[in-house]
Amino acid sequence: MTGPASASGARLAVLLVGLGLVVALVAIGALFLGSARVPPGDVLAVLTGRVKGVDQVVVLSLRLPRILAALLAGGALAVAGAGFQALTRNPLAEPSVLGVSSGAAFGVIVAQVFGLGTGLVEAVGIAACAFAGALVAGAAVYVIASRGGGLPVHTLLLAGVIVGIFFSSAITVLISVLDFDRLGGVVHWLLGNLGPIAPASLAVFAALTAVGLWLVVGQARPLNLLALGEESAQQLGVDAERLKRRVFAGAALLTSAVVAFVGPIGFVGLIVPQVLRMLLGPDNRLVIPAAVLGGGAFLLLADTLARNVVAPAELSVGVITAFCGAPFFVYLLRSRAPQAGL
Amino acid sequence: MTRLLAALALACLLLPQAASAFTVTDQTGRRVVLPAPPARIVSLVPSVTETVFTIGAWDRLVGVTDFCDYPAVARQKPSVGGMISPSLEGIVALKPDLVVATTAGNRHETFDQLARLKIPVYLVNPVAASDVLDLIARLGRLTDRAEAADRVVAALRERIHAVSARVAGRPRPRVLYVLWPDPLIVPARGALVSELIALAGGDSVTADGGHGYPRYSMEAALARNPEVILIASHDATRSPLVRSKWERFTQVPAVSAGRLHTVDGNLMHRYGPRIVDGLEVLARLIHPEAFEKAVLR
Q1: Could you report the per-residue pLDDT of B247-278, keeping only the tens digit for each?
Q2: In chain A, positions 108-137, which contact chain B (CB-CB < 8 Å)?
Q3: Which of A136, A189, B176, B257 would you call most buried, defined as having the most Cβ atoms within 10 angstroms of its Cβ?
Q4: Angstrom distance (rounded) from CA A30 to CA A300
Q5: pTM of the entire predicted model
């Protein structure tokens, strides 16, 4: 027992250190790059507290919180995706495919229609509405798809698509009764909006993400056993129902935190766990912790592109994740999938 | 000879009828032929609703949209729904002899559907402040209120000149106008607000960043050290929160100097007579020193 466990422990440590370096590199790049053209020396001077003025605002109040938000959101989405995939034993399960993102987005828009704004207490309220929406959507998918105690793959995906379409239409209805002037903001938000986030909101976002990560990441080993089938997992001492509830709540919380604070960004929860599985194999003890850092690095890279390619204008980060992620995913699917057994 | 006389007589009989047909050219250059000056107009454009009121042709307006909220009496007119998908049935039921629509905000499908229903459509497409004045004069001729409309235009022109005169020769402060705070959306090249800021004696820091109203980089906007920041309010209850978000950036000249202001977006973004109110608001915020004496007097 100690042999394989410690071997995978060592492998995990190497993996996390490597991904940590990637995250650090991307974060440094993101800190130095931007449409405001702050010279690298000035960025360093701001970081050491020697320069005040607008450069300080750009580096410390705009770029740094945005980098942290991107890392949090990317990690949260990737872990939510890995969690849903392990839970449903379906590699295509992902917050947006399962309709959970749409449910959360609906919750956010309902909260806004009822006048919740951008204050701190209100941000918590919006996140709570998002979580409620995500739970309702997830539960609806589960109820629609479950057949005699099981979750057939194609029924699950169809149920997710249908629930997603239902909540998207509900969002469209709400948008059409919203004030015309507010339309622009909502449409951009629906594509993902990593804007300037206030420190207090960032702290709430980080706390919710931490809870969600704690719920899912700690369950990597029982999720491995769940992959053998529920009965086998039960025989190996896993309380399958409790495990599924816990991971579902965690993944829904991660999804709704991201939707509430940066918008429903698609693709990250699908692509990052898939790529990690192609590279590392199916072991959730490696894939799920790696998804925290891998997802963060991927979304931060996408956001750094989003705010630099058409500067001083900006793109929505969701456009970049889909635009760059899809071809990369196709490449991996064609070249690596046979070995990974997908 | 008799034939010629007969032809002349026929022409004389026909001419009055031809003359009674009412032909106008709309703002996009399309010819709109009506049997008579329109008496039952449906406006699908909030700024057109405002203009029709200002020139005194209010009784000719029989229908408006949900977004026509100014003047307050506009709420008493029957609404045909939103700008993007107005109710065709609602429009038909009002038996309009003319529908006024805009190429920026309404959909081409709506124009085509109205054409199939044989309801004449008058299109407007104002881009610059001069187009707004042109539109007021056009709507005046359309509704038999040409003189009143010309008086309105002359008065507006005078107020624009008065603003120009006050701000002329003064240093031009760098202005950041925030149309939407999150994500940041600003007026750029060709946007009416950019023109109004320039007329008000300011230098918009985002005037070169794309076309129309692009999504804009927050750091690029702040890196240009705006001396005045103007945040458009769309909803009175939300603006204080939006303001506090910007007040954090005390290193930005506009914030440290206390020149962070909220302005009524409806005065700046609608192509109606109130843009001159908007211009005066902008000028007073950008050049308060130019208006001090006027306040004292």
Answers
A1: 888 889 999 999 999 898 889 889 999 999 99
A2: 115, 117-119
A3: B176
A4: 8
A5: 0.82
